[in-house]
Design a protein that fits this description.
By secondary structure, the chain is α/β, with parallel strands linked by helices. The chain has two domains: about 140 residues, Rossmann fold; about 160 residues, Aspartate/ornithine carbamoyltransferase (Rossmann fold, 3-Layer(aba) Sandwich), CATH 3.40.50.1370. It contains twelve helices and nine strands. The strands form two sheets. A five-stranded parallel sheet has the order 7-6-5-8-9. Helix 1 packs across helix 12. The longest helix is centred in the last third of the chain and has 20 residues. The chain is globular and about 55 Å long. The two termini are about 20 Å apart. The structure holds phosphoric acid mono(formamide)ester and norvaline. Norvaline binds next to helix 6.
């Protein structure tokens, strides 16, 4: 069956079917293979890409930049002090200007509403490079990494521990439930995802024959896990919550004794990075052979390239 994503935006993985997500992962595998063989492409030749950042970034910014250059596009970085986004000029007007000049727009920032408005008003594909609510391109990189390690996504027991209501937890829950994984969040009740999103993901899981479980019970959650995933306890913009989060989340730290609770030697450790070692993960687990965090980081580039190529050409 053919697939055509041309003109589509990626604002949240909710908008993509399992079939489309699989297609993006397969395209990323192919682009990765070509890059490793030294084959340069021209799949984005002549395209101009705006990279809007309200929040800082290492991986996302560099992944978009390198992916553009690899395929012949021109990336233009626009930081928060460089343009008038929602400041002296409305998001709607900025979007219409950028849409006249650029072929695609990446946005990283605070409100999901901003990335949605950019998509609505620019008329070109817009890709969410992280908002307070979602981080969909990270999930594609994580899923490519899991496929590389286990050869499949279906039936993988994916356990996320820590802040269960941040952009990563939300997006992983959406992606995993669509792809037929057994997805578990272990977090204190006050940090569980929104009930409406849980219910939506349970419907995705019903269709994919996966499952979604949210629990406070660390033992039950980790038993049999193929993937142990965590993220920072304070996301960008929440730095003032550090004290409370450390108190709440200390039991959910990923350390070697927690890794042993999976009962499997082949369990992998994942983290979107950047990590605060000593908080959500110990240095020991981070540096262990089970840790695949730098594979995830590299795969940001291959998957982002797949997103741009498939939506622009
Ligand atoms: N994982 C991730 O999005 O990293 P950056 O914040 O460095 O882009
Ligand atoms: N939850 C983290 C992810 C960083 C990639 C944050 O929003 O800061």
């Amino acid at each position: 069956m053919g697939i055509n994503l041309r003109g589509r935006s990626l604002l949240t993985l909710k908008d993509f079917t399992a079939f489309e997500i699989n297609y993006l992962l397969e395209l990323a595998e192919d682009l990765k293979r070509k890059k490793k063989m030294g084959i340069k492409g021209e799949l984005l030749k002549g395209k101009n890409i705006a990279l809007l950042f309200e929040k800082p970034s290492t991986r996302t910014r560099c992944a978009f930049t390198v992916a553009c250059i690899d395929e012949g596009a021109h990336p233009e970085y626009l930081g928060k002090d460089d343009i008038q986004l929602g400041n002296k000029e409305s998001v709607e007007d900025t979007a219409r200007v950028l849409g006249r000049l650029f072929d695609g727009i990446q946005f990283r920032g605070f409100k999901q509403e901003t990335v949605e408005k950019l998509a609505k008003y620019s008329g070109v594909p817009v890709w969410n490079g992280l908002t307070d609510l979602y981080h969909p391109t990270q999930v594609l990189a994580d899923f490519l990494t899991i496929k590389e390690k286990f050869g499949r996504l279906k039936g993988i027991r994916f356990v996320y521990l820590g802040d269960g209501r941040n952009n990563m937890a939300n997006s992983l829950m959406i992606g995993a439930s669509k792809m037929g994984m057994d997805f578990v969040i272990a977090a204190p009740k006050s940090l569980w995802p929104e009930e409406a999103l849980i219910e939506e993901c349970k419907l995705f899981a019903k269709e994919s024959k996966g499952s979604v479980t949210i629990t406070e019970n660390i033992e039950e959650a980790t038993a049999g896990a193929d993937v142990i995933y965590t993220d920072v306890w304070c996301s960008m913009g929440e730095e003032d919550k550090a004290e409370e989060r450390i108190r709440l989340l200390k039991p959910y730290q990923v350390n070697s004794s927690l890794m042993k609770k999976t009962g499997k030697d082949e369990t992998i450790f994942m983290h979107c990075l950047p990590a605060v070692k000593g908080n959500e993960v110990t240095e020991e687990v981070f540096e262990s052979p089970q840790s695949v965090v730098f594979d995830e980081a590299e795969n940001r580039m291959h998957t982002i390239k797949a997103v741009m190529v498939s939506t622009l050409s």
